[in-house]
Every structure is written in structure tokens, then in C-alpha cells.
Design goal:
Blueprint: E1 11-15, E2 22-31, E3 36-40, E4 46-49, E5 54-55, H1 57-68, H2 72-83, H3 92-114, H4 132-136, E6 144-145, H5 148-168, H6 174-192, H7 210-232, H8 254-272, E7 277-280, E8 291-294, H9 296-312, H10 319-322, H11 324-346, H12 363-369, E9 376-377, E10 380-381, H13 382-409, H14 417-435, H15 444-447, H16 453-466, H17 469-476, H18 483-512, E11 523-526, E12 532-534, H19 545-558, H20 570-594, H21 596-604
Antiparallel strand pairs: 1-2, 1-5, 2-3, 3-4, 6-11, 7-8, 9-10, 11-12
């Protein structure tokens, strides 16, 4: 094993990936497996660099002094003598010295480029990409409009044209022009390939309490689901009113498990249908972009048609209510089997396909968080499919079953007002998610988290059986509300939905096309990654306005259940804890990714989720 050359804490010069520019960095750690140094730039950005991309500061000082010591008087005298003669007819004896002087100048230019002093190199970069001044955090411009990139590009065009004309009619030798052309082509290639290639390294910071915390969550999450469903069946669903556990044989039914399998593979068949557009996701660490078929809304329509056919032939959908616990146990067993399969197959996955947060080397932690980032069977993306299809659409089907069960048990000709509100609010939420399915490709679940037990159990068990808790509660504990109260709850849900949808749309449109004239009024802080952080609109109000809208909607879903018990408000309490924890994770990742720009954004937008509170 080769020994490391640079020690932790040593200040060296690190090459910015894909360029010839070197910056002063500090070595923070070294990976013995991948042979990569983790270095920290002055603005807080951390990158993994190879040893060949790092140089000591003394080598730069030596080269600089060497180039500066080369006879400046000779160059100045040569220039002064050349002015007195015709440039078209130089003396024969001086022609060779002029060639040597040009070679000396070219060598000096290369040295200056490596020490990041030469500014013409920056002209080769697009205005919307990484900029040296932005990267180093210089106060050139902390805020920009979305159209400023276009204006800057138009201003640079005349300068570029003049530069090309000067190069075309210059008196340099063809050999020097060829060298410069090769350097220019290398810079051009770097501009075309935007992603910076990184090698996946071991996970250093473990979340969710590490190995012990993830082990406890694997046990507690299923237990929580089963406990909540048992409490909803009790006459007194108080949290401290423990009821005797049912017999184990009553929790399992092979027919129910068969229905779970049929549901999963039916949704998979809808996903594989050649309908809907195909889009590309965000670039991976290798620069590759995966393709995804956007047809979740069509799958919902086909599922609704299938449910309609079953109801037409008088299929008793309230069967779900009578066997909901067995369905939850079967779904949990299936998600566990799927998680085991995902972990086993991830052991053969290439290093660059592993999740950045699930590559710790510890079985329990990687099993829970997900070892592989995008597990696929051919073009079938398992994580993307489970994110919205089986669980989210299943949530709506369970709600409909609860509505029909309420009508049958209480001999109602129409559902209660409370049940109608809960079903309508949550149906709107699911339809909105499926209609805007493409937006999920930019979420942390897709871009950062691997596909393991956490997402498999969450998508297939937690979402359909915990999110439908209010409808399940109302079947056994009917609650009567007046029309004015129902109207007030509806207004509250609409406010939450408006904040949620408009904030997400604003963010997605800006990510897709920052130069859109419709977004010209938005201001943003440029970052070293080439992306911008919005500081106006909803994202200038709080850092996560979509979370704020989500929490308001969650409260509106629980209010129709009244205030007799806290059980139907479990979803609101859990959701606040979930989003606060997710916001903390996102804060940590953004600070590492954007560095000084993120600190400026936090100063401009101090509140995280709740304005003037948190």
C-alpha cells in the first residue's frame, strides 16, 4: 500500500477538478481504500482529490521565483529596440532571440495559469458555471437576477470576437498556435462536460443514531404501525389503553399476502406501459443521467378504472377494513424480503453506483439506509417505482375502503362530512404528487438516499397504513362537524396546498431553466457549483416553504376527527418531527455542497420552516 504524501491539516495547492487552476486548500482526511485526499477550500467546499492533483506550496513559490528571475531587462530592452525598427523586417540576428523570447513568454503563461493568476482562462467558462470570484467568496455580486447570465453572455460576445481576430492575424509561430489550440480545446471539452467526476468513498458520518439507532428503528417502525392499527379498533383508543395482543395465527393470511403481491405487480405492469414521456434525472457522480418514464398519473387512472369495475360487480371493498391488520403484516413481510434482496444485489454493484449515505461498511446501517443508490432491473427503477406508485395509490384505495365501511357499518346513505373532507384532502394530495411526478427526481430520496429498508418499508407500509389513519379512525369513532367548521378546515387545507404547490413549482422551474423570462423577478445567490440559491419568493420567506405547506395540510387532515383523542393527530406530530429531521439533514448537505454561499443564504433567510419561530 503506497504511503500518503500529505498529512492531515497541511496547507497545499489543490487543482480544481477538470481545470488547470490551483487553489490553496487544507487536507482534512485521507481514504486508504480509494487513495483520495479530502481537502477543504477557503469557502468551506470539500472535495476528494487524487494525489496527482495536489502540490506543495513550495513548488509554486519556486516556479514563480524562477520565472520572475529571468532577465526582465533583456525583455524590456528587446521591446524598446524593436519599436525603432519596422516590425515587418526584423534583423536576422534578432529573429532568433525574438523566438526565444516568445517561448519564454509561453512558459511563463503556463506557470501563471497553474497558480490561478491568469484571468483569460476564465473567459472560456460560461457565465452560469463556476466562477473563480464566486468560488472564493469575493463580494463581486451576492445577488443576481435570473436574466443576468444572458446579459453577461451578450456583453462578452464582442470581446471574444476581438480576441479571435487578434489570434487569427498574430505573428506567432504555427507551433505556438497549435499548442494554444490544444489547450483551448481541452478547456472547451471541460465546459461541455459539466459534472465533476467523483469516486464514491466510505460513509464517514452516520445518521439515525448509527448502527444502534438503525437497528432499533428496524424493530420500532413495524411495531408502531401495528400498535396504531390496534388502537383504532378499540372503543377507547387512548394511547395508554393497552389491549391484549391478538393471536399470531390471526395476523397472517396467505390470501391477503397474495393480494399484496398482485397489487405490487399490477402497479409494476402499469409502470412498464409505453405511455407518458421519458425524462432524464440529475447527473450522477459519474456524470451519467438515468432515464425515467413519467406515467404515474396514467397508472392512477387505470387503477381507478379497475376499482370501478370491481365495485360495478359488487366486490366488497370494505374487506380491507376487516383485514387491515393482516394487510399491514403482509406488506411489512414483503418490504422486508425486498430489502434483503436489495442489500444482497448491492454487494455486487460497482463502487460508483453505491449511495453516498449508505456505504459505511456496517451491515445494519447500510441495510437500513440503502447500500445501492439506484437499483434497476433493466430499465425498471425499483426505488423510483416504489416512491409513488404502490404506497401512494394504495393509500387512496384504503381511504375509499374506509368510506364504504363507514356507510355499511353505520347504515348511511352518504358518507359523513368528516369522512368526505379527509378523503377529498388526501385525494388532492396524491393526485398532485402523481401529476407532478417529475419533481420527485430532485428530492433527497432519489438523489442521495439509497434504497434499503428505510424507503422500502416507508413507501410500502408506513405511507398507506399510517397516512390513512384518520379515515380508519372515523369508521369506529364517527365525528360530527358543522358546515362552518368544515368550511374553515377547507380554507386551511387550501392555504397549505397553495404554499406547498407554488413553492415546489417555483423551485422546479428555476432549476429547469433559470433564464426563463417568467422568473426574471427572482433573485438568487450564485454558488461554486453553478447553481443558484433563491432569496426571493417563497424561498426568501423561509428555507423550506414546501415543508410549511405540508404541515398545514397535515393539520387540516386531522381536524375533522375532533379532539376526543390524540390518536388521529399522530400523523401531524410525526410529520413535524420527520420534516424537522429532514431539514437538519438537508442543512448539513447544503453547507458541505455550497460552502460560503449557503452561509450567505442562511443570513438572508434566517427561518428554517416556521417564520419567526424556527
Amino acid at each position: 500500500m503506497p504511503s500518503r504524501k500529505f498529512a492531515d491539516g497541511e496547507v497545499v495547492m489543490g487543482r480544481w477538478p477538470g481545470s488547470v487552476l490551483y487553489y490553496e486548500v487544507q487536507v482534512t482526511s485521507y481514504d486508504d481504500v480509494a487513495h483520495l485526499y479530502t481537502v477543504k477550500y477557503k469557502d468551506g467546499t470539500e472535495l476528494a482529490l487524487k494525489e496527482s492533483d495536489i502540490r506543495s506550496q513550495s513548488s509554486f513559490k519556486h516556479r514563480k521565483s524562477q520565472s520572475s528571475s529571468s532577465s526582465p531587462s533583456r525583455r524590456s530592452s528587446s521591446r524598446s529596440r524593436s519599436r525603432s525598427r519596422s516590425p515587418g523586417r526584423p534583423a536576422k540576428g534578432r529573429r532568433r532571440s525574438a523566438s526565444q523570447s516568445r517561448e519564454h513568454k509561453e512558459d511563463k503563461k503556463k506557470t501563471v495559469q497553474e497558480t490561478s493568476i491568469a484571468l483569460p482562462v476564465l473567459v472560456l467558462f460560461k457565465p452560469s458555471e463556476n466562477n473563480t470570484k464566486r468560488y472564493n467568496g469575493e463580494p463581486e455580486s451576492t445577488e443576481k437576477n435570473a436574466t443576468s447570465c444572458i446579459i453577461l453572455e451578450q456583453k462578452l460576445k464582442p470581446d471574444l470576437e476581438i480576441k479571435r481576430m487578434l489570434e487569427q492575424y498574430s505573428l506567432r509561430s504555427r507551433k505556438d498556435d497549435k499548442k494554444k489550440e490544444e489547450i483551448y480545446s481541452e478547456k472547451k471539452t471541460f465546459v461541455a462536460v459539466k459534472p465533476i467526476e467523483k469516486v464514491s468513498t466510505k460513509t464517514k458520518e452516520m445518521e439515525f443514531g448509527g448502527r444502534i439507532g438503525t437497528f432499533m428503528l428496524i424493530l420500532l417502525l413495524p411495531a408502531t404501525v401495528f400498535y396504531l392499527l390496534l388502537m383504532c379498533k378499540q372503543d377507547d383508543p387512548s394511547l395508554l389503553n393497552f389491549s391484549p395482543l391478538p393471536a399470531l395465527e390471526s395476523l397472517w393470511d396467505w390470501r391477503v399476502f397474495g393480494v399484496i403481491l398482485l397489487w405490487f405487480f399490477l402497479q409494476a405492469a402499469f409502470y412498464l406501459l409505453p405511455i407518458g414521456k421519458v425524462v432524464e434525472g440529475l447527473p450522477l457522480s459519474s456524470g451519467r443521467k438515468l432515464q425515467y418514464r413519467i406515467n404515474g398519473f396514467y397508472a392512477f387512472i387505470l387503477t381507478a378504472a379497475a376499482i370501478g369495475v370491481l365495485l360495478y360487480f359488487e366486490f366488497e371493498l370494505h374487506y380491507l377494513y376487516d383485514h387491515l391488520m393482516q394487510f399491514a403484516v403482509s406488506a411489512a413481510a414483503f418490504s422486508l424480503a425486498l430489502s434483503i434482496y436489495l442489500y444482497v444485489r448491492s454487494l455486487r454493484a460497482p463502487e460508483e453506483e453505491l449511495a453516498p449515505g449508505g456505504n459505511s461498511g456496517y451491515f445494519i446501517y447500510d441495510f437500513f439506509t440503502g447500500h445501492e443508490l439506484n437499483p434497476r432491473i433493466g430499465s425498471f427503477d425499483l426505488k423510483y417505482f416504489c416512491e409513488l406508485r404502490p404506497g401512494l395509490i394504495g393509500w387512496v384505495v384504503i381511504n375509499l375502503a374506509m368510506l364504504l365501511a363507514e356507510m355499511k357499518i353505520h347504515n348511511l346513505s352518504v358518507p359523513s362530512l368528516s369522512m368526505i373532507l379527509v378523503n377529498s384532502f388526501q385525494l388532492l394530495y396524491v393526485v398532485d404528487a402523481l401529476w407532478n411526478e417529475e419533481a420527485v427526481l430532485t428530492t433527497m430520496d432519489i438523489t442521495h438516499d439509497g434504497f434499503g429498508f428505510m424507503l422500502a418499508f416507508g413507501d410500502l407500509v408506513w405511507v398507506p397504513f399510517v397516512y390513512s389513519l384518520q379515515a380508519f379512525y372515523l369508521v369506529g369513532h364517527p365525528t360530527t362537524i358543522s358546515w362552518p367548521v368544515a368550511a374553515a378546515i377547507t380554507v386551511l387545507n387550501c392555504i397549505g396546498y397553495y404554499i406547498f404547490r407554488s413553492a415546489n413549482s417555483q423551485k422546479n422551474n428555476f432549476r429547469r431553466n433559470p433564464a426563463d423570462p417568467k422568473l426574471a423577478n427572482l433573485k438568487f445567490i450564485p454558488t461554486a457549483t453553478g447553481k443558484g440559491l433563491l432569496v426571493t419568493g417563497w424561498w426568501g420567506f423561509v428555507r423550506h416553504p414546501n415543508y410549511l405547506g405540508d404541515i398545514i395540510m397535515a393539520l387540516a387532515w386531522s381536524l375533522p376527527c375532533g379532539f376526543n383523542h390524540i390518536l388521529p393527530y399522530f400523523y401531524v406530530i410525526y410529520f413535524i418531527c420527520l420534516l424537522v429531521h429532514r431539514e437538519a439533514r438537508d442543512e448539513h448537505h447544503c453547507k458541505q455542497k455550497y460552502g460560503l454561499a449557503w452561509e450567505r443564504y442562511c443570513q438572508r433567510v434566517p427561518y428554517r420552516i416556521f417564520p419567526y419561530i424556527y
